[in-house]
Design goal:
The complex is a heterodimer.
Chain A (H helix, E strand, L loop, with lengths): L20 H7 L5 E4 L4 E6 L7 E5 L2 E5 L6 E5 L6 E6 L5 E6 L4 E5 L5 E5 L6 E6 L5 E6 L4 E5 L4 E6 L6 E6 L6 E6 L3 E6 L5 E6 L4 E6 L5 E6 L2 E6 L5 E6 L6 E6 L5 E6 L3 E6 L5 E6 L4 E6 L5 E6 L3 E6 L3 H5 L39 H7 L3 H9 L5 H14 L2 H5 L4 H14 L6 H14 L8 H38 L11 H7 L7
Helix pairs in contact in A: 3-4, 4-5, 7-9
Chain B lengths: L7 E4 L11 E2 L5 E6 L2 E6 L5 E6 L5 E6 L6 E6 L3 E6 L4 E7 L6 E3 L7 E7 L9 E7 L7 E3 L3 E8 L6 E4 L4 E6 L2 E6 L4 E6 L12 E6 L5 E6 L3 E6 L8 E6 L5 E6 L5 E6 L4 E5 L2 E8 L6 E6 L5 E6 L3 E6 L3 E7 L12 E2 L6 E4 L4 E6 L4 E7 L15 E7 L5 E9 L5 E11 L4 E9 L6 E6 L7 E6 L4 E7 L9 E8 L6 E6 L6 E5 L2 E6 L4 E7 L5 E6 L7 E6 L3 E6 L4 E6 L3 E6 L6 E7 L2 E7 L8 E8 L4 E6 L17 E6 L5 E5 L1 H13 L10 H21 L13 H8 L8 H12 L5 H20 L8 H13 L12 H23 L1
Parallel strand pairs in B: 9-13
Antiparallel strand pairs in B: 1-57, 2-3, 3-4, 4-5, 6-7, 7-8, 8-9, 10-11, 11-12, 12-14, 15-16, 16-17, 17-18, 19-20, 20-21, 21-22, 23-24, 24-25, 25-26, 27-28, 28-29, 29-30, 31-32, 32-33, 33-34, 35-36, 36-37, 37-38, 39-40, 40-41, 41-42, 43-44, 44-45, 45-46, 47-48, 48-49, 49-50, 51-52, 52-53, 53-54, ...
Helix pairs in contact in B: 3-7, 5-7
The chains are: A alpha+beta, B mainly beta.
Subcellular location (chain B): Nucleus, Nucleolus
GO molecular function (chain B): RNA binding
Keywords (chain B): Nucleus, Repeat, Ribosome biogenesis, rRNA processing, Transcription, WD repeat
């Protein structure tokens, strides 16, 4: 004797992004902490030293925040005009910043007054950075030049005048003290060697370059400009490797994750995208409230700091392992029948004769009613409030399969019927349920044809249902038209290769439901 | 073409066991049922087949126990004979030749030596009228007896054996047909007829379907097509008969049976619920629901402790009288047609086809036993006529048996087709298939063909459908996500909106051929590029088959317009074609051979050929009547070593096919038959024990162990007979127990006699010593304490002389004498006891 097989509730595929390891990793941050700055935040830089303070350049000041403080630990305010590019030296002791007034200032992190002032540029300096030997400073300016300065003497070492437009980004090599790269609004990236007087490599980005970034190995270079992020192979004389177009506005900032496996790009379109650096596919994406100008990741990805045009600094900290489990860390106590089930932990002894009791299977209420062939009751149970529509539809389908749907639908009073029609109004146009519910709707109309007009409630609902169906038919017709247009487009774009015809299955599949419906 | 005589077409299992009512023996240990041309004896406890009583040459149409000997059973068959069997030993005792097509058999305890059989009125097979005749069995010693006298009892009865029943110990016999019930009283030699009013004009079909008489009281229960059960009483007169009606079944009552004491009435029908009515308290009912399929027969054991029901799905359920299922005997389920093709499960080597509605059955060809049912649809089956059910229409295994794909289909009246494609993965732990992916509506129309790619790199499934497309399904691994692997559609293709009818992968999976009506298209499954088209009009392509091994450059196709074509894939041209109406083309997976079943003038011919050779390897004309639609090459578990050229194609695999009448047939060669004969001799075991696999295992093991031991202990002599035959022992056993010496004394003696005795030389020496000893004992009145002494001595002497061990344990003269002496001694001792 087989046991009753319960009604099968169909599982519909969930649309939307799949849960990957990456989404789990990048979602594992706490709610962002927001700090309001005075102006657009143009640069964020993390100190390489242990507490990993970070310098936030906004308007005419540079704030240094501690890893968990929302108030600045330190502030540098001695700028005459807008400050740019506040960056730490690799020992975390010095900080350099450019300024709209063309003067580059060098600060001691503990001090307040500038240690050195480098004057020589004629226009705003947007980039200032230390070379890897810590004794020189690279600056790039809107006067189309970039300079190398000696820190002890505060003298200009070399000036390169190769770009033909503003230089808005630059990066020094971490492995070689003489190498650095600049990106300019003249669409080019240039690589310089301090030992020679001119650039050693030029790459064409095709768009004004907003950001450049060395890979940790420094064999690859990433540049951002326009809507594109491009990767260049430096070991192959600057050959382009990939061009990524995942943003729909200018990409402003680039950043690598702590392990170098993921590349992050921030854009004016308010998104931060995370790329896999092996196949350059977007694996995750963050959404922010305003256009993003600057982005930085703390070492080990402990926090994501984003600066936006509206002056809001958003800081997301990684959840610690305790917080990850959250409120569900302790398993919720199920109601236990400890009081009633005696001898639960009794273990049979050696000579005991064990009488096995078959486990009683639990059936849902509608299944119990279906088992007893109480079809109307089963439908009532399935229509109860706050039941998932999947379950209701599955029961209707099961009744239809048994050939007793008509019996179950018939003989209902006003209240029952209006409940049923209400459910239909809610779900009949859902493509997942349409095939089943259209049959049921037809049956209801057939059964209750004679009593139309006797109840105002039901009549109103029926009119609503009619409107709904009419709208849906119009909609499907439009879709069919679009499909036809798409087909002609595809047919004309496909290379003429006979015989093969590819099908655009998902769309046509849904449309076929309503074909031929009155 | 030469006809070969060395290969025979034989029936191979899978016959119906639910054709007629089964019989439970009076000790409830065995169950007898007719199965095709034989009677099978099953053990009711282990469900194993104990005996296969073979002898009939046509369908067995009834089995009954011999009322005068409960260890014998009669069986009747359509071949016109009734045979008497000893079913415990599986021996045919007698054959009664009646020379009529017998439809059923009935016996009664009151009529000893008389059988009642139902035969057609005119002795033709097509006759519509049947009569019940009494057969007086002649008393003769011959194993084959011609039965002369037949006397008609009732004319115009139903051929259904359930419509005739004996009442109250054989006083009367009741038969029902149509709307009429006829009761014949043997004493009065008079019959009464009762008829019901036809309810046809009211839309009720109240004709009789079955009948059962109460064993103790005058009451007849009849079942009706409208689901009613009527209990007839007071029917020994024409006028004042009465009947009461019971109604639970909503469809025809298929079978009725009173329990032997008459306390309960069992009924069953299409609802597949066994209903137990209390006699005289009919409103109390017990139910045993969900038995799986419509109940066709109910049988009750003579002591009432067991019921059994046979079901429409070729199953017999054994039920305890407490209405609990205790065992299920399941045969091969054969619907009216096999919708899925015949397949071989690569793991278990079982034959796979659709079984019960919504199930796939795995059937062991070697053991003629259903292994298990796989529930594909996973829905409650509604036992009701006219309900559209999901049916498994297609199934396919991949090469290693890791994946199973099934298609189920339900065509509703006046609405669209529901199709589900399900993919099952093999679970090593549970040793069965587990559902992995369900695709609802994989195509917009019926799926015509489905196959897995045989290439080991990809798991790829291809389906073709009448909607003009084929789809390729790939196992997508979501290694980066949390979900497990699932299947998704990879490619949709078509060819000029033609409807694809068949598909076939080449043996290495590098090519894929589709039959689009008249055109064969060959694709590369890696790039989904159309490589070439082949066409040989007229006629749509029916079957496609790639050649294997040395013939892998050939593609064979059959068309509806009597064509068998062979294309060479290297030149993309037709190699040869012959005008043959091939209904089925099947490739042997282990060789280059192909089998083509050709239907010709109402019968089927078989050709086995290699695509590269012009002459067929084997051909057989008129294999069977009707078309052969399904066939399969099953691998042999043991390769045959037949050297004859004509039977070499059967060495590696065996060809099974299903005829139009759903008989599973196969080809057997001489060498195979010889081997079977040899193995059946080996299997001869003690008949009193049910032959379970467990027994076979242990029995053989024991036997081997014994042989080994024998070899070890006694390399020279064979086992010697035990000393039961000795006169002394007989004498000893004959003497009353109270005059014998104490048991411990005799025991030591007896044990000694069982020991492998020392050499005769030593035996010669022994008596003198022992006589002395015994004499000394005789003197001792309480000699019991010293009794062990001689024994110890004996042990000691045996230890001294281990080389001469080979003597026989027959009681030597000396021992006999000793025994006699013991008796003497004992008596004297007894007398001494009496004296004091």
């Amino acid at each position: 004797m087989a046991s009753f097989k319960p009604t099968k509730i169909q599982i519909y595929p969930q649309l939307g992004a799949k849960v990957t390891q990456d989404t789990l990793y990048w979602k594992n941050y706490k709610a962002p902490v927001q700090v309001k700055e005075f102006g657009a935040i143009t640069n964020i830089d993390f100190s390489p030293l242990a507490p990993h303070n970070y310098a936030v350049t906004a308007s005419t000041r540079i704030h240094i925040y501690g890893p968990f403080s929302q108030e600045p630990v330190k502030t540098f305010t001695r700028f005459k005009d807008t400050a740019y590019s506040g960056r730490f030296r690799s020992d975390g002791q010095l900080l350099v910043a450019g300024c709209e007034d063309s003067v580059v200032r060098l600060f001691d992190v503990s001090g307040k007054v500038a240690l050195r002032m480098f004057k020589g540029h004629t226009k705003a300096v947007h980039v200032a950075d230390f070379t890897s030997d810590c004794y020189h400073i690279l600056t790039c300016s809107d006067d189309y030049t970039c300079c190398l300065w000696d820190i002890p003497n505060s003298t200009e070492l070399t000036k390169y005048k190769e770009h033909s437009d503003y230089i808005r980004c630059g990066a020094t090599s971490k492995l070689n003290k003489d190498l650095f790269v600049t990106g300019s609004y003249d669409h080019t990236l240039k690589m310089f060697d301090a030992r020679v007087q001119k650039s050693v490599m030029t790459m064409d980005h095709n768009h004004p370059v907003e950001s450049v970034l060395f890979y940790p190995s420094e064999g690859l270079l990433v540049s951002a400009g326009g809507r594109y992020v491009k990767v260049w192979d430096l070991l192959k004389r600057g050959q382009p490797l990939v061009s990524l177009k995942n943003h729909h506005k200018t990409v402003t900032c680039l950043c690598l994750s702590g392990n170098g496996q993921r590349l992050l790009s921030a854009s004016l379109d308010r998104h931060v995208k995370v790329y896999n650096t092996t196949n350059y596919k977007v694996v995750h994406s963050f959404d922010y409230t305003a256009s993003i100008l600057s982005l930085a990741l703390a070492p080990e990805d402990e926090s994501v700091v984003v600066g936006m045009t509206n002056g809001i600094l958003s800081i997301k900290h990684r959840k610690t392992s305790e917080e990850k489990q959250g409120p569900t860390g302790q398993p919720r106590r199920q109601p236990v029948f400890r009081v009633f089930v005696k001898g639960r932990n009794c273990v049979p002894k050696q000579d005991d004769f064990l009488v096995s009791k078959s486990a009683k299977s639990h059936l849902a209420k509608y299944d119990k009613q279906l088992k007893r062939f109480n079809v109307s009751k089963a439908l009532d149970t399935a229509l109860e409030k706050n039941r998932k529509p999947e379950i209701t539809v599955a029961v209707i389908k099961e009744l239809d399969r048994r050939g007793t749907l008509k019996n179950a639908l018939a003989g209902r009073d006003e209240q029952n019927l209006s409940q049923l029609v209400n459910f239909l109004i809610g779900n009949v146009v859902d493509p997942r349920f349409a095939p089943v519910l259209v049959t049921a709707t037809e049956m209801i109309l057939d059964i209750y044809k004679a009593v139309v007009g006797q109840s105002s409630v039901v009549d109103r609902q029926l009119v609503r249902l009619q409107e709904l169906v009419e709208r849906e038919i119009d909609y499907q017709q439009d879709l069919l038209e679009v499909l036809g247009m798409l087909d002609t487009l595809f047919a004309s774009t496909l290379p003429r290769k006979e015989e093969v015809c590819r099908e655009h299955a998902p769309v046509s599949y849904e449309i076929s439901y309503f074909r031929g419906y009155p | 073409m030469v006809e070969h005589t060395g290969i025979r077409v034989v029936h191979r299992g899978g016959s119906k066991i639910n054709f007629r009512e089964p019989v439970i023996t009076s000790d409830s240990r065995f169950l007898l049922c007719g199965s095709g041309e034989s009677v099978k004896v099953y053990s009711t406890s282990t469900e194993e087949c104990v005996h296969d009583l073979q002898g009939h040459t046509d369908l067995v149409t009834g089995v009954v126990l011999n009322p005068s000997n409960h260890l014998q059973a009669y069986s009747c068959s359509a071949d016109g004979t009734v045979r008497l069997w000893d079913f415990t030993d599986g021996i045919l005792i007698k054959t009664f030749i009646i020379r009529y097509h017998i439809f059923s058999i009935h016996v009664s305890e009151k009529h000893v030596g008389v059988l009642f059989v139902v035969v057609p009125m005119a002795n033709e097979k097509g006759s519509e009228l049947f009569q019940l005749v009494a057969v007086h069995l002649p008393r003769s010693g011959d194993p084959e007896v011609e039965v002369g006298e037949l006397s008609a009892v009732l004319c115009d009865v139903s051929p259904n054996p359930g419509a005739v029943s004996f009442g109250t110990g054989g006083e009367y016999i009741a038969a029902a047909k149509g709307l009429q019930l006829e009761v014949f009283f043997f004493k009065k030699q008079k019959s009464y007829r009762f008829s019901l009013k036809s309810g046809m004009n009211k839309g009720i079909n109240n004709s009789f379907t079955c009948i059962s008489c109460h064993p103790k009281e005058d009451c007849i229960a009849t079942g009706h097509a409208d689901g009613k059960i009527r209990l007839w009483r007071n029917f020994n007169q024409k006028k004042e008969y009465t009947y009461s009606t019971l109604h639970w079944h909503h469809n025809a009552v298929n079978t009725l049976r009173f329990t032997p004491e008459g306390t309960n009435l069992l009924s069953g029908g299409i609802e597949s619920v066994l209903v137990q009515w209390r006699y005289t308290q009919e409103n109390q009912k017990d139910f045993l629901p969900r038995l799986g399929a419509a109940i066709t027969h109910i049988a009750v054991s003579p002591d009432g402790s067991l019921f059994c029901t046979s079901h429409a799905d070729n199953k017999i359920t054994i039920i305890l009288s407490s209405v609990k299922v205790s065992a299920i005997i399941q045969g091969l389920v054969k619907d009216d047609c096999v919708r899925t093709d015949l397949m071989i499960d690569p793991r278990s080597k079982a034959l796979v086809l659709n079984g019960k509605p919504g199930h796939l059955q795995f059937y062991s060809l070697h053991r003629d036993k259903q292994l298990y049912n796989l529930d594909i649809v996973q829905q409650e089956y509604i036992h009701e006529q006219g309900v559209d059910q999901f049916q498994v229409v297609k199934a396919a295994f991949d090469t290693h048996g890791d994946w199973l794909a099934t298609v189920e289909e339900r065509r509703q009246k006046s609405s669209e087709l529901e199709i589900n494609l399900k993919l099952w993965s093999y679970d090593e732990q549970t040793q069965s298939f587990v559902l992995n992916t369900t695709v609802t509506a994989p195509h917009e129309d019926q799926i015509t063909a489905m196959c897995f790619s045989p290439s080991p790199e990809t798991t790829l499934l291809v389906t073709t459908s009448l909607d003009g497309h084929f789809k390729a399904w790939l196992l997508a691994d979501h290694s980066d996500t949390e979900e497990s692997a699932s299947w998704s559609c990879d490619f949709v293709g078509g060819y000029h909106l033609l409807k694809p009818g068949c598909c076939c992968f080449s043996a290495d999976g590098s090519l894929l051929a589709f039959g689009f009506q008249e055109v064969v298209t060959v694709w590369s499954p890696t790039s989904w590029e159309l490589l070439t088209t082949l066409s040989q009009p007229p006629g749509a392509v029916r079957d496609l088959c790639f050649g294997r091994l040395s013939c892998s450059k050939y593609l064979l196709g059959t068309s509806t317009k009597n064509q068998l074509c062979c294309w060479n894939l290297l030149t993309c041209s037709l190699e040869w074609n012959t005008p043959m109406d091939v209904s089925l083309l099947q490739a042997d997976p282990f060789s280059e051979n192909m089998a083509a079943f050709c239907s010709q003038s109402g019968s089927t011919d078989l050709f086995v050929f290699k695509p590269s050779e012009p002459r067929p390897l084997f051909s057989k004309k008129a294999l069977c009547t009707g078309k052969v639609e399904r066939a399969i090459f099953a691998p042999r578990d043991q390769m045959l070593e037949s050297s004859e050229e004509y039977s070499q194609w059967l060495n590696r695999s065996q060809l099974y096919f299903l005829t139009q009448h759903m008989d599973l047939m196969t080809f057997s060669t001489k060498t195979e038959e010889d081997r079977l004969l040899a193995s059946s001799k080996q299997l001869m075991v003690d008949d009193s024990v049910a032959i379970t696999p467990f027994y076979l295992l242990l029995g053989r093991h024991k036997q081997q162990q014994q042989e080994k031991q024998e070899l070890l202990t006694n390399p020279l002599a064979e086992r010697t007979p035990l000393p039961q035959g000795s006169i002394a022992i007989k004498e000893l056993l004959d003497t009353p127990a109270h005059v014998l010496p104490s048991a411990s004394f005799l025991c030591s003696m007896f044990v000694r006699s069982l020991l492998v005795s020392s050499s005769s030389a030593r035996v010669e020496k022994e008596p003198a010593e022992e006589e002395m000893k015994s004499e000394s004992e005789e003197v001792d009145s309480d000699g019991e304490a010293d009794l062990f002494q001689p024994k110890q001595e004996l042990w000691g002497s045996a230890a001294q002389d281990p080389v001469e061990e080979s003597g026989a344990p027959v009681l030597t003269k000396a021992q006999e004498r000793e025994l006699r002496r013991v008796k003497k001694l004992d008596l004297s001792w007894l007398s001494s006891l009496l004296d004091c």
